[in-house]
Design brief:
Blueprint: H1 2-6, E1 13-14, E2 20-27, H2 30-38, E3 44-48, H3 50-53, H4 62-76, E4 81-84, H5 111-117, H6 119-132, E5 138-142, H7 148-167, E6 177-182, H8 185-189, H9 191-194, E7 201-203, H10 205-213, H11 231-246, E8 251-253, H12 264-270, E9 274-278, H13 282-290, H14 294-305, H15 310-319
Parallel strand pairs: 2-3, 2-9, 3-4, 4-5, 5-6, 6-7, 7-8, 8-9
Antiparallel strand pairs: 1-2
The structure holds phosphoenolpyruvate and magnesium ion (MG).
Phosphoenolpyruvate binds near residues 48, 204, 205 and 255.
């Protein structure tokens, strides 16, 4: 298997008809970035920064974060390194943040909501990101966005941080893209609105599938519903891709569905620009992409989208798998 994949190493990711795609990696710390590079990722599509905050007694300071972000950025420059701001809450509890017990943490005070209320914590991260962006390849990505005001509030915060850094005479690069995860139904359904003010999208199918289907993957009684092949989820993915392109912004996917072999033709047909996967799956994803021309992918996707159940869709996609 490994031998077979070697021929895809060091090559650009292309569909069968020569359309360029990006195959990026998901990482949790700067050391992972080195592995991702050696696994032949073309960039980083998701740096989950919450790991920098976990398993310790207090939040990492600006200098410590600066070092981690700069290291990842340097390894991949000039290719993009998409760094997601702190995604705390839900299943990711960080004791020193005193988030309080909630009846429904997945619908609670978390991620970008928490960061916008805890300005000094958030500013430390944003300042570190702006300072680490000396090569201009860092992109900031917000988790759990549900509406436009969150993007605007973060832009204001970025501008404020730039002013502060300038006044302090610190070196930084204010020219940074601000993108969002599309992982809530609210963001998915309003993707056309959000695309007007986000610089890029990345579809988080792990959360999006759960929220769309109102089904917890970890709950064995309902996990059968948790499938990206559900018409509800596939329609959303298609709409998100179309909305991004109508607004002229790129769209990636960093949820596990990006590496799902049987979904590849649908994702190509929808026009997904970037596939961000565990670094061990980079070559396999590149190979899957190389098997489909756009026209063949559209043919498969149209048939798949006309089916009415996840079971039929999965069975059909398996039957045409390459
Ligand atoms: C997702 O929700 O698809 C995602 C990539 O974010 P995480 O898995 O970190 O929640
Ligand atoms: Mg998520």
């Amino acid at each position: 298997h490994k031998e077979l994949l070697r021929e895809f190493s060091g090559k650009p990711s292309m569909t069968l008809c020569g359309e360029k795609k990006d195959v990026f990696a998901n990482i949790g710390n700067a050391a992972d970035a080195e592995k991702a590079r050696s696994d032949d990722a073309e960039g980083i599509g998701l740096f989950r920064t919450e790991f920098l905050y976990m398993d310790r007694d207090s939040a990492p300071g600006e200098e410590e974060q600066l070092e981690a972000y700069r290291k990842a950025a340097d390894i991949f420059a000039p290719a993009p390194v998409i760094i997601r701001t702190l995604d705390v809450g839900g299943d990711k509890n960080i004791p020193y943040m005193h988030m309080g017990k909630e009846d429904n943490p997945f619908m609670g005070f978390r991620a970008v909501r928490y960061c916008l209320e805890n300005q000094s914590l958030f500013k430390t991260q944003i300042r570190a990101l702006l300072r680490a962006n000396t090569q201009g390849n860092i992109r900031i990505m917000l988790p759990m966005v549900t509406n436009l005001c969150e993007i605007r509030d973060v832009r204001d915060m970025i501008n404020k941080c730039c002013e502060e850094l300038k006044a302090e005479g610190k070196e930084f690069n204010s020219n940074v893209c601000l993108g969002i995860m599309i992982e809530t139904p609210a963001a998915a359904v309003t993707a056309d609105i959000l695309a007007g003010e986000a610089d890029f999208f990345s579809i988080g199918t792990n959360d999006l599938t759960g929220y769309m289907m109102s089904a917890d993957r970890g709950n064995a009684k309902v996990s059968y519903l948790y499938k990206a092949y559900q018409p509800a989820v596939l329609r959303m993915i298609k709409f998100i891709c179309e909305s991004a392109h109508k607004a002229g912004i790129p769209v990636g996917m960093c949820g596990e569905a990006a590496a799902d072999t049987i979904l590849t033709p649908c994702l190509i047909a929808f026009g997904l620009d970037e596939f961000s996967v565990d670094s061990g799956k980079v070559l396999e994803t590149r190979k899957n992409i190389s098997m489909w021309s756009f026209n063949e992918a559209v043919e498969v996707s149209e048939k798949a989208m006309a089916l009415h159940t996840a079971e039929e869709t999965e069975q059909y996609l398996n039957s045409v798998k390459r």
